[in-house]
Inverse folding.
């Protein structure tokens, strides 16, 4: 797709023939007082292509072969050598793609298990932006859905609630008081609650951090603290004395 070859790869190779069949349809003629009715007639005849039409057909075939070779090369660059060896006899990129899809397009139990394990292993941080962790979790849930393992929305909400850090335990308590059994609750709505809680907590941390910075900047140096230049002069003097 990035190279503009996806749609071209799915096209069938055009054929180049020096002749083509032309079908002519003669409409039916109703009967009159003088002539009887004539039924619809279909006639087919073979016409030899001219040089100009033959050149156009050959140009289309060359364009298809060029795009097909580009697509084949792009696919082979991303294949493991053992798999690429099995596809060496494929002359059409669409055929190679279809064969790969039939072999490896359907995920096995191991792939679905790994996706579910990644969902369960995701942790929402306590002192960092939770957005990345939540998006990672929803990404794995989406992949499970594509694999045919649809997790109910209520279970997704429960999984996200179980991942809440201690600082956001109030969100879980608030959701547990719902009387409609999570009827209209989705993982997106819980996500908004988590982000709102994080923004409020981070806003409360800023004044405290600024106050600590002000305390550090207000510390005064005691009189007589040696400066770097004083230490350097003193060191040079001792070196001179040692040389003398």
């Amino acid at each position: 797709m990035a190279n503009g070859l996806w749609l071209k790869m799915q096209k069938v190779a055009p054929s180049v023939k020096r002749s083509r069949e032309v079908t002519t349809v003669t409409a039916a003629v109703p009967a009159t007082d003088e002539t009887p009715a004539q039924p619809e007639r279909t006639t087919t005849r073979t016409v030899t292509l001219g040089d100009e039409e033959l050149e156009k057909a050959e140009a289309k075939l060359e364009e298809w072969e060029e795009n097909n070779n580009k697509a084949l090369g792009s696919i082979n660059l991303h294949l493991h050598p053992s798999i690429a060896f099995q596809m060496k006899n494929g002359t059409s990129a669409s055929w190679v793609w279809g064969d790969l899809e039939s072999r490896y397009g359907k995920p096995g139990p191991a792939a679905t298990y790994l996706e579910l394990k990644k969902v369960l292993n995701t942790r929402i941080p306590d002192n960092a932006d939770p957005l990345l962790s939540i998006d990672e979790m929803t990404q794995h849930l989406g992949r499970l859905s594509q694999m045919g393992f649809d997790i109910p929305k209520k279970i997704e909400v429960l999984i996200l609630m179980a991942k809440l850090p201690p600082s956001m335990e109030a969100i879980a308590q608030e959701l547990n008081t719902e009387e409609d059994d999570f009827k209209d609750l989705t993982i997106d709505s819980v996500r908004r609650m988590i982000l709102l809680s994080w923004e409020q907590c981070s806003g409360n941390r800023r004044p405290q951090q600024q106050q600590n910075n002000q305390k550090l900047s207000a510390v005064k140096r005691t009189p007589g603290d040696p400066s770097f230049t004083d230490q350097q002069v003193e060191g040079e003097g001792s070196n001179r004395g040692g040389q003398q």
Remarks:
- The CA atoms of residues 9 and 30 lie 49 Å apart.
